[in-house]
Amino acid sequence: MKLIGMLDSPYVRRVAICLKLMKLDFEHESVSVFSTYDQFAKINPVVKAPTLVAGDGRCVMDSTVILQYLATLAGPEPRLFPTRPDDALRAARLTGLALAACEKTVQIVYERNLRPAEKQHEPWVQRVRTQLLAAYAELEREVAAATLPTRQEQFDAADVTVAVAWDFTQMMLPEIVDKAEHPHLQAFSALAEALPVFVETPAK
């Protein structure tokens, strides 16, 4: 298998970390959807990161879809997705909030960095900013309310996604999402980023 995409994308990084947690063999190709667009298009004409190229050459897109597929290849342990209904519901909520935060972070970054200044729409940015802060406020409450993993082998896909999302937003928009207002998220992310699988899969 090959994982295509840059690790500065939280979507690519969450898949790479989960692949390692599941002990699945893969090759990572750091191909950019921007600077190496044509190279990416030769692999996947849709040019969407992450792209997983299966052993038979077929491409799978979207980080969540990729993880769902990968979970079928892994053994019973470690388990990427919980099976008990209450645990599965909480994991789904954490994942949805974290991915929403990633999406809103990306929207603000694209608006600021890719759109000409005279065409930027500040009311839209403010709306997205409100959504971003709401997602992290909800995540902070969720993280504060439950016991989270402290060892690498305890992490599942939801835990990885929360940690990766927070690190991504802090890398891109630290002036918007204040660490001091999210102490539980900051502590959890710091713990995660110190684990070997995160250290060897850096975002930058």
The neighbouring-strand order within the major sheet is 2-1-3-4
Give the low-confidence spans.
Answer: none
Proportion of helical residues? 55-70%
- In what range is the share of β-strand residues? 5-15%
- How much is the radius of gyration in Å? 17 Å
| Outline | globular
What's the number of extended β-strand segments? 4
Order of helices and strands: EHEHEEHHHHHH
Q: Would you tell me the structural class of the helices and strands?
A: mainly alpha
Q: What does the main sheet amount to? A: 4 strands, mixed
- Average pLDDT works out at 95
Number of domains: 2
Number of helices: 8
Based on the coordinates given, report the CATH architecture of the largest domain.
Up-down Bundle
Report the CATH C-level class of the largest domain: Mainly Alpha
CATH fold-level assignment of the largest domain? Glutathione S-transferase Yfyf (Class Pi), Chain A, domain 2
Distance between the termini: 23 Å
What does this 3D model show about the protein?
Residues 1-78 form the GST N-terminal domain. InterPro entries: Glutathione-S-Trfase_C_sf, Glutathione_S-Trfase_N, Thioredoxin-like_sf. Pfam families: GST_C_2, GST_N_3. This protein has 204 residues and is mainly α. It folds into 2 domains: 2-73, Glutaredoxin; 85-200, Glutathione S-transferase Yfyf (Class Pi), Chain A, domain 2 (Up-down Bundle). It is built from 8 helices and 4 strands. The protein has helices at 10-21, 37-43, 63-73, 85-113, 122-145, 157-172, 183-193, 196-199, and strands at 2-4, 27-29, 51-53, 59-61. A 4-stranded mixed sheet has the order 2-1-3-4, with helices on one face. β1, α1 and β2 form a beta-alpha-beta unit. The longest helix is centred in the middle third of the chain and has 29 residues, at 85-113. The two termini are 23 Å apart.
